[in-house]
Design brief:
By secondary structure, the chain is of the alpha+beta class. Helices cover about 30% and strands about 25% of the residues. It is built from 13 helices and 24 strands. This is FAD-binding domain-containing protein.
């Protein structure tokens, strides 16, 4: 019997399975589809700290190498360039700030790794239609081509995506929020656009899409991902039949030849479940929260859900921590979901204003942004995803000498403080501290200046298994260090 059943073989479920297996936990992944459907770019911006998580399971380097990192973000209003922002990487990390690579390719690379992971098994054609919990575990009811099948596990991690309505309903969960009226047309185009391969271009109210937005992202292999905001009544089949889709594409690529690789239309939603833990079942990714893609917070936050859940399930499975450790999964990742929803919601209010005040604000900001730096800072086309800080977690030992002072300016990192992701620094022998923290061992990692030069002399960092700082303490306070290490894994 597997210790954990993961429902859903998307990137979140794949990551969770690989991490659980790395912790020595047997895991089975169930997916309703008959096989992997490798189609479309879907989630394309894989953020550095998520690539770092994938590196722990042997995939991050390949995703970074195959991905494309653009260097300049250009923003336009009615055809006029308002400003351009150049991303300057400090070079501290071996990974780029982000990598544009299709979700389909990411899934292929994760599948390859899963196939070489003995403790993880993926079963396609297993549609989960029911969950029954008791004091010993969870019975998962599946529909398969061979008929109904019952599977047992100690715990279930539900990564079944946005459409997992039946699963959420069986768990007694609502999925409250809203869906935006406007649709978004997404196309993957293969074409030659010299100079565009290192630039992201965001158009507010272009003459060729009046009153709405267009976003152009470069991707590997001479492919460009284009997102058009379109009217609620937009009909893709009708647009293709009348030649409108070609005309729309020509407004961007001109008379160059192009190949339409993929297209889709959908609406963005903003939703979250009230609980991400229900007994022996944890929910992660789109199964637990939905947000607009501007800022790339969907897949990235889902992978961070997976890491948080995996190490805690592993600690409970091995008997290293009590079952109550799983309560902190909800505490931490629900707070992360709410932060992401708030940031993505503010972006959508700027992109799709719904009130007169919002429309006036947007018009004023865009009108002034070309010449007014203060207005330029208010233009919101989406802030890239960032790791959540567990400053208020019961696993974190606060220290008023090292406070968290809020998000730093773009391109900068927060000084080491309890709850924050540890800086990407190295030990004296060249080992990355984040990799050291993520080793699958019982004891939380504790480092000082003697081992890690970046740690100030006289200070100690206590690291969680997900590389967040559980505590920043004085090196002489051994009792506090021991207590913080216990608290970091729920043993208080």
């Amino acid at each position: 019997m597997p210790a954990v059943i993961v429902v859903g073989a998307g990137p979140v479920g794949q990551t969770a399975a690989l991490l659980l297996a790395r912790w020595g936990v047997p895991v089975v992944v169930l997916d309703a589809r008959p096989a992997r459907d490798v189609v479309g770019s879907r989630a394309i911006v894989q953020q550095r700290d998520v690539i770092d998580i994938w590196d722990a399971v042997g995939v991050g380097r390949r995703i970074a190498d195959e991905g494309l990192t653009w260097r300049t973000a250009r923003t336009y209003h009615r055809g006029r360039e308002l400003f351009a922002v150049d991303f300057v990487d400090s070079g501290r990390s071996p990974f780029p700030p982000f990598a544009n690579v299709s979700q389909a390719r990411t899934e292929e690379l994760l599948d390859e790794r899963l196939a070489r992971t003995p403790l993880a098994e993926v079963r396609w054609g297993h549609r989960v239609v029911g969950l029954e919990q008791d004091d010993e575990g969870v019975t998962v009811v599946c529909e398969t081509p061979a008929g109904e099948r019952l599977l047992r596990a100690s715990h279930v991690l539900a990564c079944a995506g946005a459409r997992a309505d039946t699963l959420r309903r069986d768990l007694g969960l609502t999925f409250d929020g809203e869906t935006f009226d406007d649709q978004f047309l997404i196309c993957d185009l293969r074409t030659d656009l010299p100079g565009w391969e290192t630039e992201r271009r965001f158009h507010f109210d272009p003459v060729w899409n009046p009153g709405r937005q267009v976003l152009v992202h470069p991707c590997p292999g001479g492919t460009f991902r284009v997102d058009w905001q379109v009217a609620p009544s937009f009909d893709l089949a009708r647009e293709e039949a009348c030649g409108g889709l070609d005309r729309r594409i020509r407004q961007i690529v001109g008379d160059r030849p192009y190949e339409l690789v993929w297209r889709s239309v959908y609406r963005f939603s903003s939703r979250v479940v009230p609980q991400m833990r229900v007994g022996r079942v944890l929910l992660a990714g789109d199964c637990a929260h939905l947000m607009s893609p501007f800022g790339a917070r969907g897949l990235n936050s889902g992978v961070q859900d997976a890491e948080n859940a995996a190490w805690k399930l592993a600690y409970v499975h091995h008997g290293w921590s009590p079952e109550s450790l799983l309560d902190t999964y909800h505490t931490e990742r629900h707070a992360a979901a709410l932060e992401n929803l708030a940031v993505a919601g503010a972006t959508m209010r700027f992109l799709v204003p719904r009130t007169d005040d919002e429309r006036r604000h947007r018009h004023d900001v865009l009108s002034r942004a070309a010449t007014d730096p203060a207005a330029r800072a208010l233009v919101d086309s989406g802030r890239l995803a960032e790791p959540f800080w567990y400053t208020d977690s019961p696993l974190t030992t606060p220290n008023p000498r090292y406070p968290v002072t809020g998000r730093p300016p773009r391109g900068r990192t927060h000084p080491p403080a309890p709850g924050v992701l540890v800086p990407d620094v190295q030990t004296r022998d060249g080992t990355r501290v984040r990799a050291l923290a993520r080793r699958p061992t019982f004891d939380p990692v504790v480092v000082d200046h003697a081992e890690v030069p970046a740690v100030p002399d006289g200070q100690v960092w206590v690291l969680r298994p997900d590389a967040h700082l559980a505590a920043v303490l004085d090196a002489a306070d051994t009792a506090a260090i021991g207590a913080a290490a216990l608290r970091a894994v729920g043993n208080v």
